[in-house]
Amino acid sequence: MKPDDDYFHYMHDEHDPMLDDHSQYMYNYDYEFADPDGAAYGGGADGGAFTTWSSFSFTFPQCFNPTLRQIAPLILRTLGMALAMRVAALLRTPPLLFHLLSAALGMVAVWLQFGWDGVHVFSVFEAAGYALYRLVPRHRGPITAAYVLAFLLISEAFIYNAVQWHSWRGSLMIVGVKLLSVSFDADGGRMPTNLSPVRHTGFCLSVVAVLFGPFMTYQTYEAMLQRPPLTVWWVFTTVRLTVVCFACLVLSSCVIPFVLTDSAHKWALAFTGAMSFRYSHYFVCYLSEACSVAAGLGARQSADGSWTWDGLPVVRLYHVELPRSLVEVVTNWNVAMHVFLKNYIYKPTRHLGQFVAIAVTYFASSLLHGLNFQLAAVLLSIGLYAYIENVFRSKVSKLLDACIMARACKEDCSHQHKSSRLWVRLFNLSFTALAMFHLAYLGVMFDN
């Protein structure tokens, strides 16, 4: 296998989905604290790098309480609307009314979050996309892709102010990739070309994913109508994901930024800054997964007829925080967006050649995120670093006949030196440390 083919195999493995994407929302909370003795919040009298426990225990409630007051209503409101879709499905609501309810609640969610301006932008964006889907007889996918990118980039550059657009951008990107998926699926014969406006709008503006995602295909969206039964496991999974999402937000806003003082080493500060950004991303991912499970998605029926709730995986935190390689970071940062990029960007351009398809995929991902140099630089940098690391470790693995490739080998691999050997473990751990350094370095771009 050629190096490029080998690399792309890692980046697009069916069992490790995700190519690249970044947080749709970044919640930043700026507080000015003082400790009980009047000293500024920080390392205390000794001027150390770590915050003292007395200072932290005083300031944490001052951060936690306003964070809870601001975010709890959003979480509960979003979950409540997703639960309404679950109830509608269990009540065997006719499909037309079900899709109408999905779109109506989606618009209510947009109105509550973004106001009437948001309702106008989202409805126009979706309506024009539907017109292309119905009126264009051929090549709907490429034409819709041109429309989506043009709408997002022109709106950001010339129509809306930066603050307003930044609050909409992540949600509009989710709507845009849904428009693309419908058009490409219609071109490929995977779905009909005559969806009604209600069904199309119900999917693209579904309350389940209109604010926070995740991306899902139309077939996945309609799985809500399968009505998997109410079980304790469903309740537990929804609650667990909700608790995890809020914990990630608290860690991002109230814990990680205050672990170190300004006197700490610059690379330690960079590491905590990058970690704070990542945990805000995890908050969005776990909230989107909680909403999808609450709405009845992510259920799996086993051979004996019982149901389990695996959810719709959006992020794999462990593989990002302690990655074997940067390839693991790339493939686990956002699972749902990987599925989209692989199926709707890479595969249609694969006939142009491996390198061109990879370049187009990364370029399209950057454009979908808008005119943002920070995001584009991070995407391209991670892609370049991951490619170099993958090629290097593949060659060294062949040379030493050891399990030291960028991705873990299967148990029955042919390498002589397995991953259980001490020097192999140390070799792999060194690249874990290198990947964590890269994450800290790239996280500096989001410091402001």
Biggest beta sheet attributes: 2 strands, antiparallel
**Percent of residues in helices:** 55-70%
Termini separation: 42 Å
Beta-sheet strand percentage? under 5%
Number of distinct beta strands: 2
Shape: globular
Secondary-structure content class = mainly alpha
Number of helices: 15
In N-to-C order, the SSE pattern is HHHHHHHHHEEHHHHHH
- Unreliably modeled segments: 1-47
Give the integer mean of the pLDDT values: 82
Radius of gyration: 23 Å
Largest sheet, order of strands side by side? 1-2
Task: Describe the protein in words.
Helix 3 crosses helix 6 (197-204) and helix 4 packs antiparallel against helix 5 (162-187). By secondary structure, this protein is an all-alpha fold. It has helices at residues 3-11, 53-90, 95-135, 140-159, 162-187, 197-204, 218-222, 232-255, 266-294, 317-321, 326-332, 335-349, 354-368, 373-400, 422-443; strands at 299-301, 307-309. The radius of gyration is 23 Å and the shape is globular. Strands 1-2 form a two-stranded antiparallel ribbon.
Q: What features would you highlight for this structure?
A:
448 residues, mainly alpha, two-stranded antiparallel sheet, 15 helices, 2 strands, globular
Short description:
The protein is an all-alpha fold and 448 residues long. Helix content is 65%, strand content 1%.
Question: What is the element layout, followed by pairings?
Answer:
Blueprint: H1 3-11, H2 53-90, H3 95-135, H4 140-159, H5 162-187, H6 197-204, H7 218-222, H8 232-255, H9 266-294, E1 299-301, E2 307-309, H10 317-321, H11 326-332, H12 335-349, H13 354-368, H14 373-400, H15 422-443
Antiparallel strand pairs: 1-2
Helix pairs in contact: 1-14, 2-3, 2-8, 2-9, 3-4, 3-5, 3-6, 4-5, 8-9, 9-15, 12-13, 13-14
